[in-house]
Amino acid sequence: MVDVVISGIGQSAVGRKVDRSGIAMTVDAVIAALADAGLDRKDIDGLSTYPGKLTGNLAHFSPVGTHELIEALKLRLDWYNGGGEGGAQQAGLLNAVAAIKAGYARHVIVFRTLKEGSGSLYWQQAAGPSAQRQRVGDRFEYLMPFDALTVINYVAMSMQRHFHLYGTTRRQLGAISVNGRTNAALNPAAIFRDPITIDDYLASRMISTPMCILDCDAPTDSSIAFILSNAEAARDLRSTPITIEAMAGALHSAASWDQTDMPHMGAHDAARQLWSRTALKPTDVDVAQLYDGFSFLTLTWLEALGFCGIGEGGAFVEGGHRIARDGELPLNTHGGQLSAGRTHGFGFVREAVIQLRREAGERQVPGDPQVAIASAGGGPQAGCMLLTRR
């Protein structure tokens, strides 16, 4: 069986507004990843991204596609892919792993670029009433009268349902935000580094009850790139290769935020598939980088992946001791998207690699981490991967 490794990682400047074009930032990230791996552009025979180039009101969500990067770097490829349907933000990684295992490519660039900091109003424009939405006959007929059209509203309803079913509280959930900010203080690239307390969290502005502003991640301008390689082809490369032990992106329910099982969603489908593909268990994981586009999604992933029981996520994170860098499950050690900024799932994989390489400096988890987990999405689309250093 062909093993696939992450042989290189690269990141552009990350900020609320970065004065560089999307393609320039992507090239920055790719060149950094190539240098990290010790590869040249001529070594690359594959390219993958998610969700591909978007235009109009959604352009800031994904301003760069495969064709632009092929031209910018003068790549000669045997395989390439870009699309928005799959295992959430990890879809580009899932497809690249499959291509390498199938023998279509040996070294694949996988990238994700955002200009959401510069385009902070685009969601309002994209989600607002339009000519196509003046008459509705689908689920929007129950949402438009209440102006509940954004992902925030959907997640807030799932969050409220979890509170109702299991007695979860805002004080418990707030530990995820506080922990992320504590870790971000040690990350020079993080967007928000000033410490916050649980009282700051409880007093912060409500966005969609029971979700407050500190439950929401920070849009950024950013690009992250990885080099995925056939393990044999990466044997003599520059950086420590990190093995992709298992990946998953299953979906057994509707591809919509309108879920019948609101508190659980797609994370549970992906998690079940992940553990079916490895002999490792949740107790083997040394560090977890779990998607926090909203803090509640992190709670969902903790339960779905088996780090605690269903409905026990609130008690698991309460007080932040278990999820601290020196706790039993160090969580989102770079600050997560809540504090380090939204890199749309790719920042979690990057941080997992850095931790397993033991290159995280002040924020390095204690001991000798061998196994990391990284997830993305968690609502109607979800993906997760298990990484090992071996």
Description:
With 390 residues, this protein is α/β, with parallel strands linked by helices. It has a domain at 4-120 and 219-233: Thiolase/Chalcone synthase (Peroxisomal Thiolase, Chain A, domain 1, 3-Layer(aba) Sandwich). It contains 12 helices and 11 strands. It has helices at 22-37, 66-73, 91-101, 122-127, 151-166, 170-184, 198-203, 267-275, 295-304, 313-317, 336-339, 346-357; strands at residues 4-11, 46-49, 79-82, 107-115, 206-208, 211-212, 221-230, 242-248, 287-289, 371-377, 382-388. The strands form 2 sheets. It has a 9-stranded mixed beta sheet with strand order 3-2-4-7-1-8-11-10-9. The protein has a two-stranded antiparallel ribbon with strand order 5-6. The mean pLDDT is 92.
The protein's oligomeric status is single chain
Mean pLDDT across all amino acids: 92
CATH topology of the domain at 4-120 and 219-233: Peroxisomal Thiolase, Chain A, domain 1
Q: What's the shape?
A: globular
Helix content: 25-40%
The CATH superfamily of the domain at 4-120 and 219-233 is Thiolase/Chalcone synthase
The CA-CA distance between the termini, in Å, is 16 Å
What is the total tally of β strands?
Answer: 11
SS-derived structural category: alpha/beta
Helix-strand sequence: EHEHEHEHHHHEEEEHEHHHHEE
Strand order of the largest sheet: 3-2-4-7-1-8-11-10-9
CATH class of the domain at 4-120 and 219-233: Alpha Beta
CATH-defined architecture of the domain at 4-120 and 219-233? 3-Layer(aba) Sandwich
Beta percentage is 15-25%
| SS element count, helices | 12
Rg over CA atoms: 20 Å
